[in-house]
Amino acid sequence: MVALFVVLTFLFFILIDLLVLKAQGKEHPAFAVKVFDKRFFFPTKAILSTGHLWLQKAQNGFYKLGIDEFILKALGKFHLVPLKAEGESVNKGEPILQAVFGNRTITFRAPVDGSIRFLNKNINQKPVDDPYGDDWALMMEPKSDLSLSTAFLKKGNDAIKWLHDEFNRFKDFVAAKAGEPELAGVTLQDGGNIVEGVIRSFDDNTIKEFEEQFL
Questions:
Q1: Neighbours of 14 (CB within 10 A)
Q2: CB 94 within 8 A of CB 65
Q3: Of the candidates 69, 51, 47, 102, which has an alpha carbon nearest to the alpha carbon of residue 213?
Q4: Which tens digit of pLDDT belongs to each residue from 52-74?
Q5: Where do the domains of the chain lie?
Q6: Is the dihedral of CA 99, 158, 153, 94 positive or negative?
Q7: Which of 47, 209, 41 has its CA nearest to residue 112?
Q8: Which of 116, 147, 160, 178 would disulfide-bridge 183, Cβ 3.0–4.6 Å?
Q9: pLDDT by residue (tens digit) across 130-163?
Q10: By the 8 A CB rule, do 142 and 61 touch?
């Protein structure tokens, strides 16, 4: 009887947690897809662009857009600055967001054609630390249907596989650039995992290369 009470209590708190997260528009980690070592998740309903931006349809019919967790791992904490104002149109490939870390920046390009409907003003004064939750960047109205996966937009298992390949490609990139012994200790942890914010260890030219190769 006591065991049954404990189980029911446990289930009750899980249910409360799920209801709170649903009200906040978030997804419980237990139902997200594990990507790497329990550290990387990608929302199962989101669409991932090959420029490391995600889109997910909101209740108002527009699409939220933000950066993926890969970028958070590479850069560490940073501020996101929208490069378009509410009401402006944007074409695929046009600069749409900038990540600012210290006196450095990298630029993200629009994954689709569309128009900017809302900016998330909550990110103005705080660094990004919840990329799939509160720290989305903007809402846009795409010109075309995003329901189908393309070479640039990936969903479900395709998105997970692509993220996994990107992470491995990034590890190779870091290993190739960290030829200097003094950098070896700050780029790779024991077991070969990337240290969060590792890209900050490199010079401006390498950060530019990172932007060109991964964004």
A1: 12
A2: no
A3: 51
A4: 999 999 999 999 999 999 999 99
A5: 31-177+191-214
A6: positive
A7: 47
A8: 178
A9: 999 999 999 999 998 887 657 789 988 888 889 8
A10: no
